[in-house]
Amino acid sequence: MTLNERLRGFGAALAIILLAGAAAEASAPLQKTQAPGYYRMMLGDFEVTALSDGILSMKVGDLLTHITPKEINDGLARSFLKDPVDTSVNGFLINTGSKLVLIDSGAGTLFGPTLGKLVANLKASGYQPEQVDEIYITHMHGDHIGGLSADGKTVFQNAVVRASQLEADYWLSQAHMDAAAKDAKESYQTAMTALNPYVSAKRFKPFRGDLELVPGIRAMAAPGHTAGHTVYVVESNGQTLELWGDLMHVAALQFPDPNVIIRFDTDSASALAQRRRVFAEAAAHVYWVGGAHLSFPGIGHLRAVGSGYSYVPVNYSVPH
Q1: What is the pLDDT of residues 51-86, one digit of tens each?
Q2: Which of 21, 120, 234, 283 could be joined to 302 by an S-S link, Cβ 3.0–4.6 Å?
Q3: Cα–Cα distance between 231 and 278 in angstroms, integer?
């Protein structure tokens, strides 16, 4: 055998070994997970931590009105999305320096394994549930209150829970639940199960109207999605963040056209009026905005574009 033939044989053997090694490396299983879901920024002197509760797949074509199926598909495609849409569920933790305040608690165990991650992400972010002083609820749908309690006990052992009195009167009323249609009763029971441990402990304190709850955080009534739906406005050192709750759900469609309505709204006309008002205010004053269903971390700015808006998500950074 000549030297060239030997070298060719050696090369072929080496190629087989390398290919086998590559195949072995590729056999590692896919992880299919994300890093812990928290994002931190400073708002003036306040620390804001966005907390992911997970995602919920939402068939928006079945839920949206005042928009055609073609407009839905075209609008989603412009954002490189298709129906159903994986939709974030977010909460927000505000450290004012004297109070630790959580806005909404996520879904807990109500909607399956893709949600219910807020407490784990709160811990990953460096805090513990018992450190939370107050919890402000935008409204009492399950994906915003389900994480408050587990097995009949409070998850946030030292927190006072606050929400609009109108919201409490609607969802925590046995008479309302008894009068509700059969398929609607579960929503009332969900609210009662989540809130009753705090009610029993005398740590549920509803409020009326627009008011400052702690220095730098005030409630702003924004009814429509539900009777007592509330936006929370956080202000520190000249900066403002509006935490919207469910003022909107589908960014790809409701920012370009705020007239698009979701069937979850109790009073769609009022919800639309609030959306128009708050969008215009946020864009005009260059406020930070935070949405429960904006793609995580759910914080950014709005810019007016024609009769609609464009959304600019927060630029990834570290607090400083």
Answers
A1: 999 999 999 999 999 999 999 999 999 999 999 999
A2: 283
A3: 9
Closest residue by Cα to residue 246 from 103, 109, 133: 103
List, for residues 188-217, the tens digit of each pLDDT value. Answer: 999 999 999 999 999 999 999 999 999 999
CA distance 121 to 243: 19
Query: Do the beta carbons of residue 37 and residue 70 sit within 8 Å?
Result: no
Among candidates 92, 100, 45, 93, which has minimal Cα distance to 238? Answer: 45
Residue 250 CA, chain-centre distance (Å), reads 12
The lowest-confidence range among 35-39, 218-222, 233-237 is: 35-39
Cα gap 79→49, rounded to integer Å: 26
- Indicate the pairing of strand 100-103 with strand 38-43: unpaired
Q: What are the sequence ranges of the domains in the chain?
A: 37-313
- Top CATH class of 37-313 equals alpha beta
